Amino acid sequence: MTDFIAIDGPAGSGKSSVSKAVARKLGFGYLDTGSAYRALAWHVLDRGADTADADAVLAAVAEFPVRLGLDPDDRTVTVGEVDVTDAIREPSVSGAVSGVARVPEVREQVNTLFRSLVAEAPYPAVVVEGRDITTVVAPDAPVRILLTAAPEVRAARRAGELAGENAEAVAAALHKRDASDSAVVDFLNAADGVEVVDSTELDFTQTIDAVLAVIERIRGVHHG
Ligand SMILES: Nc1ncnc2c1ncn2[C@@H]1O[C@H](COP(=O)(O)OP(=O)(O)O)[C@@H](O)[C@H]1O
Ligand SMILES: Nc1ccn([C@@H]2O[C@H](COP(=O)(O)OP(=O)(O)O)[C@@H](O)[C@H]2O)c(=O)n1
């Protein structure tokens, strides 16, 4: 059985970059669950529909040929024949994604996909990051981490990535998305047994080391 290393947290807390680095370091797979929600939002928009329309979202998810890899060095995402890797990071998709994430049938369908990708993974473990991995997708995972950082620090990191975008607009969009998303699943408070890593005062390398320390401690305890 492939182990889940479950990591949740709000936007810009470092989930993707830190999880990827940890997976590389340990020779594990990496699954960015947010990219599935983003790809579905892209798919809804591509069909000329609105993600606020739950019926349109359900129609789109019924025909949603998404492909996600587990290689931490290849973040390619495709929908059918279309490579959407870059398009799903566009502000238009970020602004629309919470609409698809709030539809329960969508969550069930993508969760089934995530569990089967991990079950069939050619890795001893997969670092799976998102919002509800520690609580819904893999509540029994041996390692469960909530990665947090102060809101202004998260907004500044995301604005730094989106060069050319207005920093205040990026911050406002990020906080609005967190508010919508946290009404669906709680990723601001750690569930019982979930370890908190707060990266507010840590640089990137220190954050990776903090996550590795949690994994090594828990897996060390489990496997002697
Ligand atoms: N501890 C940290 N210190 C400084 N920058 C960081 C830290 N962790 C992540 N970053 C940077 O912040 C940005 C957002 O991180 P990302 O991994 O995309 O977050 P998330 O997946 O949670 O939205 C990236 O540019 C990343 O390199
Ligand atoms: N497990 C997950 C992962 C993402 N999502 C949704 O997908 C969106 C994009 O997730 P993401 O992880 O790519 O976002 P960032 O934190 O990278 O900005 C979130 O804003 C949520 O709406 C979710 O609902 N559950």
Structural features:
single chain, 224 residues, alpha/beta, Rossmann fold, 2 domains, five-stranded parallel β-sheet, 9 helices, 50% helix, 15% strand, binds adenosine-5'-diphosphate, binds cytidine-5'-diphosphate, dCMP kinase activity, EC 2.7.4.25, ATP binding, kinase
Folded structure, characterized:
By secondary structure, this protein is an alpha/beta fold. The protein contains 9 helices and 8 strands. It folds into 2 domains: 128 residues, P-loop containing nucleotide triphosphate hydrolases (Rossmann fold, 3-Layer(aba) Sandwich), CATH 3.40.50.300; 91 residues, Rossmann fold (3-Layer(aba) Sandwich). It has a 5-stranded parallel β-sheet with strand order 2-6-1-7-8, sandwiched between helices. A 3-stranded antiparallel β-sheet has the order 3-4-5, covered by helices on one side. It starts with a strand and ends with a helix. Bound molecules: adenosine-5'-diphosphate and cytidine-5'-diphosphate. The site of adenosine-5'-diphosphate has 17 residues, from helix 1, helix 7 and helix 9. This is Cytidylate kinase. It holds the Pfam family Cytidylate_kin. GO terms for molecular function: ATP binding; CMP kinase activity; dCMP kinase activity.
